[in-house]
C-alpha cells in the first residue's frame, strides 16, 4: 500500500506491517500453546482495533471477542491513572480467562487499572497482549504476557494509534514530523 501522501507528515517508520504480522504470528502461537479454549479476548478501543483484528485471525483456540473503551481522567496526552469506562464489556467476565489486547503500553497506568478491574469483577485470569511498549515511560510495573516491540519514548501513530484521530489507518507504526504538532 502506498502512503507517500503522508510523506511530509511522517518522520520515520519504526515498525513495518511485515514486522508486525510476523510478530503477531509468534504471539498467537504462544497464546495457542497457553490456552485451551474458553478465552475471552478484550480489545481496548479505539487504538487496539488493528492489533485485535490481526491477532485473533492468527489464533486457533476458540475465543470470544469483546470491547471496552476507557479514558484517563485529566488533560493532555498523559495518562493520570484514574480511568473512566466509556464503553463497558457486553460479556460477564466471571470465571473467564481474559486476554486484554492493547495497542501500546506507555506509563502502564491504564492497563494496571484495567487488569485489576477485571480481576475484581471475578475473571479467573487476566493476561495482557500489547503490540508496542515504551519501557522508558513506565510508571508502574505491568506484566505484559505477549509483547510485540519495545520502542523509544516518542509519540507514535499508525496501526490503530492516532494523533487527533488521524493516522489510525496507516498499516505501519511511525513517528510524526514535528511540524504536525504545530511546532
Ligand atoms: P498508559 O500511559 O496508561 O497509556 O500506558 C496507554 C494509552 O495511551 C495512549 N498512548 C498513545 N497513543 N501514540 C498514541 O497514539 C502514542 O505514542 C501513545 N502513547 C500512549 C494509548 O491510547 C494507550 O492506550
Ligand atoms: Mg489515542
From TrEMBL:
Its EC number is 2.4.2.8. Keywords: Cytoplasm, Glycosyltransferase, Magnesium, Metal-binding, Nucleotide-binding, Purine salvage, Transferase. GO terms for biological process: GMP salvage; guanine salvage; hypoxanthine metabolic process; IMP salvage; purine ribonucleoside salvage. Pathway: Purine metabolism; GMP biosynthesis via salvage pathway; GMP from guanine: step 1/1; Purine metabolism; IMP biosynthesis via salvage pathway; IMP from hypoxanthine: step 1/1. InterPro entries: HGPRT, Hxn_phspho_trans, PRTase-like, PRTase_dom. It catalyses: GMP + diphosphate = guanine + 5-phospho-alpha-D-ribose 1-diphosphate; IMP + diphosphate = hypoxanthine + 5-phospho-alpha-D-ribose 1-diphosphate. This is Hypoxanthine phosphoribosyltransferase. It comes from Actinotignum timonense.
